[in-house]
Amino acid sequence: MKKASIKYVSAYLPENVVYNQQIEDKIRFEGKKIDQGFLEKLFGSRTRRIASDDMQVSDLASQAAQSVINANRDTVIDLLIFAAASSDLIEPATANIIQGKLGLTCPVMDIKNACNSFVSAIQVSSAFIEAGMYENILVVCGEKLGEVVNYSPQTSEELRKCISGYSLGDAGAAMLLGKNGSEIVYQKFRSWGEYWQLCTVEGGGSMAYRDYDKYYFQSDSRGLKKIFEDEGPKFVNECLNESGWRRGDIDCVVSHQISSTTTDQIARYSGIPASRFVNTFGKYGNTAAATIPLALNEAIEAGKLTKGDKLMLLGLGAGVSLSVQLVEW
Fold first, then answer.
1. N vs C: which end of the chain shows fewer Cβ within 10 Å?
2. Is residue 42 within 8 Å of 222, Cβ to Cβ?
3. How many Å apart are CA 254 and CA 324, to the nearest integer?
4. Which residues contact 298 (CB under 8 A, 6 or more apart)?
5. The whole model's pTM is what?
């Protein structure tokens, strides 16, 4: 049986380029600004893209999706999946709104798994395609994250929890999956739910539906880093052993990125040369679930992937979750 495959990838970036100094100028702690250069020193970021106030999450996703549709006009989309940490609203599914904007008539659904939303949608799509339920699935993502950033923390502890939010950026992405493309030959996901409190936006759910102070992104960055460092090497080794792939055979790695050093850190514990990683953090910051498809699109456009190359997608998400997907390009 033929494996599901990646047939086309696209990304959309808002026109507005925001520099670190603009973010630093917005932050107030104890009535003072933070020092210029602080964010680049902390994260290694330089710029990110920020969507305009009137642009919705569904607009970011639709812009990326339209590029896929335009390039594949003879393809009938059987299923539309929206996969992101962000959303237009709680109900209905953001996928319904995107469907209306794109003029599609297929079934739709949302998949949410923090920064691993998009890669989780790839896994679900693969199962649907290989089971014969759908032939061509369009996975779309839109991340508009500025609205969950707390620029006025009141205490040192609050600053520590919200500081990772200053690295967030906006983006849209889309991927067409089907058969007769770049085959997804291996996939494995693992989660450690006991650590879900390490990274949250509590507002909007039943825990804090009307508590507006809870609508901010909060993260225990050190705690998350420790989990990824403790579990990541074992998980990657397990996946490579199961798949039969050797580190030296991997031509390109596209991973989630929470700082400019994320790819170097993964390279060290995986034994895969850092030169084979696609690093987009300096330009776009942390774009949550859009990060992997955005970086993959950059690799394709830069000619870093050629037919027959071995590609690893490596997901890191709050929750806490890890994923490895191996693709024969």
1. N
2. no
3. 10
4. 11, 278, 280
5. 0.96
